[in-house]
Design a protein that fits this description.
There is one protein chain. The protein is an alpha+beta fold. It contains 21 helices and 13 strands. The strands form three sheets. A five-stranded mixed β-sheet has the order 1-2-3-4-5. Strand 9 and strand 10 form a beta hairpin. Helix 14 packs across helix 18 and helix 15 runs parallel beside helix 16.
């Protein structure tokens, strides 16, 4: 889940880390936190000599390592710089005690070991009420440690240009914190600075960690008096070097490699980290990223297809004149098929697009949600605004494939209204709008002019003649088949064939209307007089892939394989006509 944190946020975290490492190095050299309030103290003459050498050391190594990287560069530079320091002490006759007290050498490390940190008897000294009162702080410390560890791990991944096993890192850090906690250790995790130092200097083997543990163990059990001879500016110079690497990569190099918006986000996070701290910088970065994401995602079109009833009809069978009317009047209904996730941003863009595209001709609007993966409940407000805007411009707004929750919330938001309809499928939505358009025309009995009536007639005459020819053939087939099988009648809503049921034969519809549904309840076909279902079933009994239901009182013939065999024996010519009829229908 942590990998969902955006790339610019991690980049801003690393840029902020670079600044804090660089200024932290200066603070180590001078024993004063570097900042605007302490800047003047760093400019004092006796102070400059403490941090300028370290800055020169870190900057020089940085420039060298930009050109080449070898694992001997850093230890060689440390050894050479240490020798130079002691030569300066000898030349200027500075005793080691004076150099240490003057802040030129590492100080504050105990001469004797730190182990054991406490004894069993020390438990008697614990103020348990204080611990109980600080439980919220303890929990907060644990959470902050986890977040910092994850941020450091992501930073290390970017430095390595490789993927870490974060689950394994958690397990290892968990055991380390559990064992270390029993020994009085403060909580912690992977160290971005030390790990990156090894990567940058080419010392990226396990020996790097081994030597680190050895030195820490040496100080813990024996003492660290030897470390007191190490020049402090070189220690600060190493931190300054790491800070320069992070700043170079994320402030300078990233300027040419990432989009300007992401670059500005990195700089913004870095500035917030500098001014207010790590966690606030990361949280601000996530907040800014969410805002940018919402703006960008809102611009992604959620309309996957635009159509009108002229181009996309329902499956309901219509008469030829009705088809011609819908050809002429289909532009009155606009269809929008949506996809993706609808939230307040994308739904705002959607509503504005629809409002701009609806013209004076549009009477009906269909909005289909079949391919929508989710709906933010706050987007309901935008659909309410759409209804208010189009209430006087359209006769009906139809929603299809939307959830019951969406329907209830929208109805509750709009109150009682007559021009909002809901259907389970896009097909039924189109059928509703077609019926409404045809009702206005009163099924060709009332036209605006004689010219329109003549136009409908001229467009329909050829198809009507073809239909009459087909019906003539159909009636002859019915007459022939009636001698072999009887017509079956069905009531409205009666299921003629069930899904996966072995069919008795091919259905030939004699009257009424029949619908074909898939196993999910989606209508895939409508049948009326002269149509047929499952032509294969007249030759072999097969399982049906659909449900067949009567929409009205209907009658039909069942042409079973046995009846088909009789027809071929008695009248091969009629069997051939039946095949031609069905192929023509297909």
């Amino acid at each position: 889940l942590f990998r969902f944190i955006p790339y610019p946020v991690i980049g801003g975290f690393l840029a902020g880390s670079g600044y804090l490492l660089a200024t932290g190095g200066l603070s180590v050299m001078r024993d004063i936190s570097f900042g605007f309030s302490t800047f003047k103290q760093f400019m004092v003459s006796d102070t400059i000599v403490k941090w300028v050498p370290g800055v020169i050391f870190g900057l020089g190594l940085f420039l060298i390592m930009l050109k080449t990287s070898h694992h001997l560069i850093l230890p060689g530079a440390l050894a050479a710089a240490t020798v130079i320091y002691y030569l300066c002490f000898w030349i200027f006759n500075i005793p080691l005690t004076e150099a240490q007290s003057g802040g030129h050498l590492v100080s504050g490390i105990p001469e004797n070991g730190l182990w054991p940190v406490f004894k069993i008897s020390s438990i008697q000294l614990v103020e348990w009420t204080v611990i109980i009162n600080n439980i919220p702080l303890i929990i907060t410390t644990s959470l902050v440690t986890v977040i910092c560890m994850l941020l450091n791990s992501s930073g290390i991944e970017m430095s390595l240009e490789d993927e870490l096993d974060l689950n394994r890192e958690f397990v290892v850090s968990g055991w380390a914190n559990a064992v270390g906690g029993l020994s009085g250790s403060s909580p912690g995790g992977v160290a971005l600075s030390l790990t990156t130092l090894g990567i940058r200097t080419g010392a990226n083997s396990r020996l790097c960690g081994f030597f680190t543990i050895t030195i820490i163990g040496f100080v813990l059990f024996i003492g660290g008096d030897l470390l007191g001879y190490f020049p402090k500016p070189l220690l600060g110079g190493l931190l300054f070097l790491l800070g320069l690497f992070f700043l170079w990569e994320w402030v300078v190099c990233s300027y040419h490699s990432i989009p300007r918006t992401d670059y500005l986000l990195i700089i913004t996070i870095m500035v917030v980290i500098i001014l207010f701290g790590f966690l606030k910088g990361v949280l601000a970065g996530i907040g800014f990223t969410i805002i940018i994401f919402v703006i960008r995602f809102s611009a992604v079109p959620v309309i996957i297809k635009r159509d009108t009833l002229k181009d996309q009809r329902s499956l309901k069978k219509r008469s030829i004149p009705e088809e011609k009317i819908l050809d002429n009047e289909g532009n009155k209904c606009k269809i929008y098929q949506l996809g993706g996730y609808l939230f307040f941003g994308s739904s705002t863009t959607l509503v504005e697009s629809i409002k701009n595209e609806i013209d004076d001709v549009t009477d009906f609007l269909i909005i289909d949600f079949k391919h929508v993966t989710g709906i933010d409940i706050s987007s309901l407000n935008n659909f309410s605004r759409l209804h208010q805007s189009l209430a006087n411009r359209t006769k009906a707004i139809v929603f299809s494939n939307c959830s019951e929750t969406f329907q209830e919330k929208l109805n509750s938001s709009l109150g009682e209204t007559d021009n909002i309809s809901f259907f389970k499928t896009l097909d039924h939505s189109k059928e509703f709008c077609e019926d409404s358009i045809l009702e206005e025309k009163q099924k060709i009995n009332s036209f605006e002019s004689d010219d329109e009536r003549e136009h409908i007639f001229n467009d329909s005459v050829d198809e009507v003649m073809n239909l009459l020819d087909r019906m003539e053939i159909f009636e002859k087939l019915i007459s022939t088949l009636s001698s072999l099988t009887k017509q079956v009648t069905s009531k409205q809503g009666e299921k003629l064939i069930k899904f996966d049921e072995i069919t008795r034969g091919t259905l030939l519809i004699c009257s009424g209307n029949v619908s074909v549904f898939d196993n999910t309840g989606l209508r895939v076909q409508t049948l009326q007089m002269g149509d047929f279902y499952f032509p294969k079933a007249q030759f072999v009994h097969s399982p049906s892939q659909f449900n067949v239901v009567s929409d009205s009182e209907s009658s039909y013939l069942i042409i079973s394989p046995e009846i088909r065999t009789q027809l071929e024996k008695l009248s091969p010519y009629d069997a051939l006509k039946l095949d031609r009829y069905m192929m023509r229908g297909l």
